[in-house]
Amino acid sequence: MIELPQIEQQRRKIDQHFVGQRICEIQVQKESWINISLGELSAAVTGRQLLFVERRGKAFIFHLDDGKRLLLHVGVDAYFSFSHDDAEAEVDSSKQQLEIKFEQGSWRIAGARTLSLQWITAKELDEQLKAWGPEPLSRNLTFELFKRRFAKRRSSLKTALTNPALIAGLTPLIADEISFRAGLLPSVRIETLTEEDWAELYRAMVEWLHEAIDESQATPHTYAVTGRTGEPCFQCETKLEELRINGKTAVYCPSCQHEHVKVSEPQGV
After folding, report:
1. What does pTM read for this prediction?
2. What's the CATH architecture for 143-252?
3. In CATH, what is the architecture of 4-129?
């Protein structure tokens, strides 16, 4: 399961182990996965220093010391591995799809259904990023800006959350988890949501992503509905159900999720 939290975990590991080192070699299983020939890519990046690694949605962005970027998209079923100081990592070489060798170790990807690697300029990257919405955990994405991203939109909540032009990196799986934590049905129409609904949705998104990224904070209940159709809800023990929204399956709790969040009644005097 490769989602935004897993991509961010890997970004932090690359940042910890390889930033500041030079690329010694790059290997890609299929030349069709890159935007230039493998020979050109190898010549372009070998010897270049990795300045820092950025994530945008589910994409890695490697910033190199010559001003160029490596933009990497990784498909589902991928798994990652590290090795240090020429130690061999436990990776099935028949499944290995990408390896970047640094001065003190390597980073590898294997098993992904799809993979795309582009060697591009900063300007070319900026042009591509214009089609993507803001990062869900960006400091600039305040509650008010979050709410405005969906203004005048007419769709289900799940459809809106998974629109990359509105918010980057929120997949159907993450949309289901955020909806559950917010107590909202994934099928609710966003044009009907109240101020309280939007506030709870924003809180749930930020809280769930931080928890899922930080493995020390994650609990068995972090993924409360994913892959659990027919199982009891962690909160109320009602059987989780499925529904179809624009051809996609959503998993939800019919007891805990509603068209509007439950607002606490004021205490009597």
Report:
1. 0.90
2. Orthogonal Bundle (1.10)
3. Alpha-Beta Barrel (3.20)
